[in-house]
Amino acid sequence: MRVLLPSTQLKIAGLLIGAVILVLAVYASIIFGVIDTSWQTLIEAYTNFSGTNEHIVIREVRIPRALIAVAVGMCLGISGVLIQALTRNPMADVGILGINSGASLLIVIAVAFFSVSTLTALTWIGFLGAAISGIAVYALGSLGRGGATPLKLTLAGAAMFALASSLTQGILIFNESAMEEVLFWISGSVAGRKLDILISVLPYMIVAIVASLIIAGPMNTLKLGDDVAKGVGQRTAFVKVGAGILIVVLAGSSIAVAGPISFVGLIIPHIVRPIVGIDTRWMIAYSGLFGAILLLIADILARFVAMPKELPIGVMTALIGAPFFIYAARKGGWQS
């Protein structure tokens, strides 16, 4: 497969260019919205705070929103690379494998039956739901001969998605008050989230991102097939479990902060692969960067599509990702 950036020097230069684009996207996310601001207003909000609406919006809304979008986008982009490498399924992401729906189900149960209403509690319940569904998918995919094969993991994820989604819809149908409380959350959004929520899960995000870069080398070997990997002395079960844990932490922390946001983990690896090739190490670096940029752009667009109201960012990523998913499916996906 021909790649746009074949050499290491070009890949490093591409990362630097991507970092500049990311900074510009963060700037645009802070400046543009229903209340127009400028770079002077941004500086004054921290050097000469006067309590105006513009200053409050920048400090209390726009800055947390942009930082959350960056962190969540990075985690989702990287988790997409790991999921597609682990399952060897180019159409896989956290939504399709049932991790999003599992988190949503636990949130709905907490609201409908235990009257949980605080955002902090829902944050950790979402994290727990993602972890439980991820463990369940891996356990189901490991049953029978051959352990956790890519096909069995994909089928287990599809089963979890169907089960959790059906139960969620069933609970919401019979509990309208729960629907009102969780509808915006289960659509996925970075709006209205406080920086404290991000800070509470940021250590997990950082550790998982660093660990993903470390496990990228063994994942390259694993993608050649279990027999080849075992032939060169790799403990494939250890690598698979490690990748599964990282997927749960990356996806779970993202869901905890912003709710279930689909298609980012599906789209980003397909965008990155023609640029840097199939080396998982470079794919993870670029996918983290591109995931953050994509989520920032989606968030900015979500503010203007239905002004003066705004769409949840999960709806916007679905609008972007669904046509891409259909196109990729018609093409049969790309080889990873």
UniProtKB/TrEMBL annotation:
Membrane topology, from the record: Multi-pass membrane protein
Subcellular location: Cell membrane
Family listed: Belongs to the binding-protein-dependent transport system permease family. FecCD subfamily.
Organism: Aneurinibacillus migulanus (Bacillus migulanus)
Gene Ontology terms for molecular function: transmembrane transporter activity
Entry GO CC: plasma membrane
Membrane-spanning intervals of the chain: 12-35, 66-86, 92-114, 121-141, 153-174, 195-216, 245-272, 284-305, 311-329
Lineage: Bacteria, Bacillati, Bacillota, Bacilli, Bacillales
Keywords per UniProt: Cell membrane, Membrane, Transmembrane, Transmembrane helix, Transport
One GO term (biological process): siderophore-iron import into cell
Protein name: Iron ABC transporter
